[in-house]
Design goal:
The chain is α+β, with helices and mostly antiparallel strands and about 350 residues long. The chain has 12 helices and 9 strands.
């Protein structure tokens, strides 16, 4: 059997069959089937190659040379036919997808609202429904509003040129705001408590543009100042905000942390809105959204530091408050499965149109 499969006639017939099959292929899909049949592990030449080991030593060299030359001929015939079919496909695509740029069009091209704009409006609307005011402020800020009033000392790392854009020099006292918290300071300076406000807007930090960072991004921060405010009010507000934005039943959790402008402070985690924690400890049903941890880091929060209240002329013995904030880009990435933040800043309507309109 081995001698028959390795005979000159059998090998030549296998080559001829392969060449005929390649020539008969009318498209790349048919050529793929022919390739598998005549060059795959179960093809006649592959099976013949396995039989060489059963031959006497004197006959192995000649049989190996014959099969090797045959397989080379088959591969060459395959490459030639593939080149022809690929060229035909390219010509067909060019013909079928040709665009007459001189033809009149019957409608004006429409743009699209950026998803960051629509999600910012949606988040603001949630707070308006809770009785909050939407407040805006300048993007060019004084260091006092951006740092000092928020209990961020002169030696804090965030005030260095590595993190902050100074408008002129580090001694100018004028910066591009690094967060929207200065809007809270300006509101506390001009309004008497009770204060319930939310401040969405752009902020600036000296980050490199990559898949998860951008030097210009957006935040939304909320502030509540009133008598008798507690952490329980903060937690309830966050839970309502999360469920309104990501779906009924979604809750938050707080992890102890440190921020100069809040005391106590906490990192804000959002319950995974895909698995809702069911993937934790279940290797058979992993969750890509939360990496099977059940929670997603969302932002920061805490009770307003009494020093911040005092700096704004509010008596910390009478009033207390809470504040929290999170990035809009990060929220948008969570909510819609976006993996590259650069897509948000390139201005391509093909990215923005699929989001539609928030209602």
């Amino acid at each position: 059997m081995a001698v028959e499969a390795l005979s000159e006639e059998s090998v030549a017939a296998a080559v001829a069959d392969a060449q005929a099959a390649f020539a008969a292929a009318q498209d790349l899909a048919q050529l793929k089937n022919a390739r598998i049949a005549h060059t795959g592990d179960r093809s006649p030449l592959a099976l013949a190659n396995r039989e060489i080991g059963a031959l006497p030593p004197a006959a192995k060299a000649e049989a190996g040379k014959r099969v090797g030359q045959a397989r080379q001929a088959v591969n060459q015939a395959l490459a030639r036919r593939q080149e022809v079919l690929e060229a035909e496909r390219e010509e067909r695509v060019l013909a079928e997808e040709a665009v007459d740029v001189t033809k009149d069009y019957d409608r004006d091209p429409v743009g699209a609202r950026h998803p960051l704009t629509t999600i910012q409006e949606r988040m603001a609307d949630i707070f308006v429904a809770m009785g909050y005011d939407v407040v805006d402020g300048p993007e060019v800020e004084t260091e006092w509003h951006n740092f000092d009033a928020l209990n961020i000392g002169p030696d804090h790392p965030a005030r260095s040129m590595q993190d902050t854009f100074f408008v002129e020099s580090p001694d100018s006292g004028v910066v591009l705001r690094t967060h929207t918290s200065p809007v809270q300071i300006r509101t506390m300076l001009t309004q008497e408590p009770p204060i319930y406000m939310v401040a969405p807007g752009r902020v600036f930090r000296t980050d490199e543009l990559d898949a998860t960072h951008t030097p210009v991004f957006s935040q939304i921060e909320a502030l509540a100042i009133d008598k008798g405010i507690t952490m329980a009010h903060l937690k309830g507000t966050l839970d309502h905000f999360a469920s309104a934005l990501f779906g009924a039943g979604i809750v938050t959790r707080l992890r102890p942390s440190y921020f100069p402008f809040t005391e106590p402070s906490a990192e804000l985690d959002l319950q995974c809105f895909v698995c809702r924690g069911a993937s934790v400890g279940d290797p058979d049903n992993p969750c890509r959204t939360c990496s099977s941890e059940g929670w997603i880091e969302w932002g920061g929060c805490g009770m307003v530091n009494p020093r911040v209240l005092a700096a704004c002329g509010i008596d910390p013995d009478v009033y207390r408050g809470f504040a929290f904030g999170m990035g809009l880009e990060r929220t948008l990435m969570f909510r819609h499965g976006i993996t590259d933040m650069r897509d948000m800043v390139e201005g391509d309507v093909r990215f923005t149109r699929p989001f539609g309109l928030e209602v």
